[in-house]
Design goal:
Chain lengths: 341, 341
């Protein structure tokens, strides 16, 4: 392996390559544009430019509402069918190819070979580890997972983790790069199948499938149990902090000591870990760290204010879209009547 | 068992009893008051009136912002230490005693014996089945689970299900009563441990505990993976509809056919059910029912608008409370400096 130059300075990066321009890759392209970058896209399908243009058109009002970077230009992109051409002069590469291991392996090897030697390459994979995906790369040292969430231009979370052969400096660079762009980065030290958010989502999803399978709940009931229940708490305070608050002034310690035995209840098909002293103390210490200086009363007030604000926000969206849908239905009915008449 | 009179008409109910006035019971009291009802509380602890007054004071601004019913009076409540006295003349009873089976059994038997014969009795239990809890009641026919979520004055969801000896009419009455009060009711046909939302939450919570236990994620990373990720989608569209949209125009059918094999991946410790044709078809049909007449494009626009609105709502709450906390910290520092000086 040739000696590589140092990674380029973050503030010199003004162009990104998006390899693959489907829903996720196209979302990344729109996001990079909104942050004032230029984007070079590799996508071999003939309708890629047209689809990408539609996606950017659809995303731009949302991105504008959240705030564009100075100089953001929605048309500062080009599509290339030659990979080396797409990677020319870029300061970062985001790979968002279909979720097929062999495809990812081949493509990441080609990208690593063709990209400038001082750039980092992020993969949008939602489930493969970089150690698996990097298998064909001659030099995998700059290959990093940067896992976004759909829609990738609106959801802040990006999970960042390297593979066995990734340079730690490349992982740190990727985390800093995404953060600089306004993303909320979780940098993981170890590769875990499904990363963090997908493991949590997947546990919930599998329990939901079991319930449908056993006739215990309908799809609509499952969704409403979240949208009108815990889902209203989670945009401000995650499941751990929610549990901490449910413990009242006694917090997480009270909850674990009081409700610990319910971990043995068949409230889900997932077996709980044994609530050892070590686990108990780790969860309490983690909650205390997260809470920091905030008092119980401050947390409760913020939670309540957030639930109200979120309920109002969602109600206004429901009203706008339900009345729009009703209006569209009336127009279709009207047109049908006119045709009949 | 004596023949019971028919259940009283919903629109004649203007007084509710709250048995137990802790966080959940007190929250119910505040909510009933905000809907224009009078509330009679049974709680034997000497500081119950003072604590309830504090809880109502804290909840009232939020309830006012969400809209009070005409005639709502925050002081229309009384606390009683005698159960029969508390139940005098009420049109509904909500039991929110501590989550201890023997306590619930004894109390529900006493309530069923002392309450007016034509009223329904709802229990806030978060995990016991009514069949278990009703064991000591001479007449359990009006005993129904009405499971709320903390804070019970702000979260709309109530899960309603009867026990083996509950009259179906009492379950229907309870569902209609909560709905009339503005709650989002899920009426379950069968008793399932943990009901619906808690089963889903519990699966996620147990996966989170496993991750902490194995050093795979910190408490803060787990919370942020939800607050900055999927948690932003869930207040408008639940996990099933989210998955449907992730399938693009092909919807849930595309997702199940394409990502079905990932159910075998170790993305959580919870084993998935086998994706049989029957389960596949049930999930697709349920998603189609939930979507109704809405087009894919309408769903995507509503989702994006909701994510933006929720992000803005949460950001404004964060800013308000973080600056308040910072201000409080400055004041404390200032006071400390003055003392030192």
């Amino acid at each position: 392996m040739a000696v590589r130059p140092p990674l380029r300075p973050l503030d010199s990066v003004d162009t990104a390559a998006c390899v693959g321009a489907g829903t996720i890759g196209g979302g990344w392209a729109a996001y990079f544009l909104s942050r004032g970058m230029r984007v070079r896209v590799w996508d071999p399908s003939p309708d890629a430019p047209e689809k990408l243009e539609r996606l950017i058109d659809a995303a731009w009002p949302a991105l504008t509402e959240l705030g564009l970077a100075p100089g953001a230009d929605r048309s500062a992109w080009s599509v290339h069918t030659d990979l080396a051409e797409a990677l020319e002069g870029v300061g970062f590469v985001q790979e968002s190819a279909p979720e097929v291991l062999e495809v990812k392996q081949r493509l990441l090897a080609d990208i690593a070979a063709a990209a400038p030697a001082d750039v980092v390459i992020g993969s949008s994979t939602s489930g493969y580890s970089m150690t698996e995906m990097a298998g064909l790369a001659a030099d995998p040292s700059h290959l990093v997972v940067g896992h976004p969430f759909n829609p990738s231009y609106l959801i802040p979370l990006v999970e960042v983790v390297g593979g066995a052969a990734t340079e730690p400096a490349a992982v740190a660079w990727a985390a800093a790069f995404y953060e600089r762009l306004g993303k909320s980065v979780i940098r993981m030290d170890a590769e875990v199948p499904g990363f963090i958010a997908n493991r949590l989502q997947e546990a919930l999803w599998r329990e939901a499938l079991h319930m449908v399978d056993n006739g215990e709940a309908t799809v609509e009931q499952i969704d409403r149990s979240i949208t009108d229940g815990p889902g209203l708490r989670w945009p401000l305070q995650g499941p751990m902090l929610t549990f901490h608050l449910a413990g009242g002034e006694g917090g997480m310690a009270h909850m674990l000591d009081h409700f610990g035995p319910s971990l043995l209840s068949p409230w889900t098909r997932l077996e709980a870990p044994e609530l050892t002293d070590r686990l108990r103390d780790a969860v309490i210490a983690g909650s205390d760290d997260e809470v920091g200086e905030r008092t119980f009363e401050q947390l409760v007030h913020a939670r309540d204010a957030s639930i109200i604000a979120v309920r109002k926000a969602v109600a206004s969206v429901r009203e706008a879209y339900e009345s729009a849908a009703a209006q569209a239905a009336r127009e279709i009915d009207g047109a049908a009547e006119r045709e009949e008449g």
